[in-house]
Amino acid sequence: MNPTIELLKSHRSIRKFTDRKIPHELLVELIRAGQAAATSSHVQAYTVIHVKNPANRERIAELAGGQSYVATASDFLVFCADMKRPTEASERTGANVVRGMTEQLLVASVDTALMAQNVAIAAESEGLGICYIGGIRNNPQAISDLLHLPEHVYPVFGMCLGYPAADPDVKPRLPVEAILKEDYYTDDSELVAAFDDAMQHYYSERRGGTKDSNWSRNLTPLFDSKLRAHMREFLTQRGFEMK
Amino acid sequence: MNPTIELLKSHRSIRKFTDRKIPHELLVELIRAGQAAATSSHVQAYTVIHVKNPANRERIAELAGGQSYVATASDFLVFCADMKRPTEASERTGANVVRGMTEQLLVASVDTALMAQNVAIAAESEGLGICYIGGIRNNPQAISDLLHLPEHVYPVFGMCLGYPAADPDVKPRLPVEAILKEDYYTDDSELVAAFDDAMQHYYSERRGGTKDSNWSRNLTPLFDSKLRAHMREFLTQRGFEMK
């Protein structure tokens, strides 16, 4: 296992940070590393907002569901899917531009995720810890207002970055035999059952852990109510109409 | 710049491969590195189909728009967003499961992209070359049939992997000043204009290059017709209803 693969496999979310600040030049370098990720047809359909204003950091911490580390991490970035820049650029060449296609939402969201994951890895390679903040989709319109996001730009997720003040365990993953399938999709419910047992054990044994749960039971909040049921209307209003 | 950041910044798509085969153990190791990426609420909403059947490789190469390297690369993977596994696991615990929310499509697509980007980086760290194949969304239903994908699973993109038989240039990216913004979204059309000049120069000067174009003009096919206009109906039929 080479050191890069070792780094990838050692990822865990960091939510406690020291007071040490990330030098601005390093932050810029991380974004450049992000931009080097593959991008669909070279479209680079993303913009990153570096939230420095402390009041906005506090507000986003609240809007994301009371995640205080959004305010306390050295830096906080909001990764936005951006179809405004490329559609307007194309329009300036005289091209006839169609907006709001489902495909464009996918392209922009995937582009943004690929670039963010490069930023995460670059950060971790420099000894930083990171935590993705999907919770900004709890209140995407309020976040968009705070950051002055125009139409055809939407906040996909945030990311806290800083020097780690904690060393949490690496969380187990589903067996690779469930994820990687040969030629055809096959049922993997037995592997899921085995993973549930492993997670039950992990939750009871980990440092300070007394949680009685497993993977399947932990998923309940994701599916048992209409999680972030506003997303369709929000995206439609922002110009991502999913046509 | 540390070696990992250097690796990230040296990415370019590889479309020509030697005959050397990737050892199976290495491929599995790449997937494990992929699984270590952050995942929303631990949901791990992805499945990777390793397409080994040569006839299916040929067929996918065609369906993806005549991309022969899909058939000729050492290995070809189809990264699928998978909401079947977690929703069924949740259901088995007795939870009341809601499907088809727009948020769930985003979660699964982003989860898949984060894990794929880790696979890409792990592969490149081992000297392999990769190329994402968004073209599988040209004919997503035919691909889904070929791979026996069930409902609540959709193919997001493919990836060719192999030992590089070419050494193409690293393609320039938009100025970091356009991508990284402080506190608020701001206009960057002047930076785009400068980038258009840089790309025009790049296309005329690169090895074997005589192409007269720039970034903005290259975007035309993405927006001037209804690119992959079938995606909405396809996703709806697969159970991703974007409610």
TrEMBL record, chains A, B:
What InterPro entries does this protein's entry cite? Flavin_OxRdtase_Frp, Nitroreductase, Nitroreductase-like
* EC code(s) of this entry: 1.5.1.38
Q: Which Gene3D superfamilies match?
A: NADH Oxidase
Pfam families for the chain: Nitroreductase
Q: Which GO terms describe its molecular function?
A: FMN reductase (NADPH) activity
UniProt keyword annotations, A-Z: Flavoprotein, FMN, NADP, Oxidoreductase
Query: Which segments constitute the Nitroreductase domain?
Result: 9-163
Spell out the family assignment given in the record's similarity comment: Belongs to the flavin oxidoreductase frp family.
Q: Per its record, how is this protein called by name?
A: Oxygen-insensitive NADPH nitroreductase
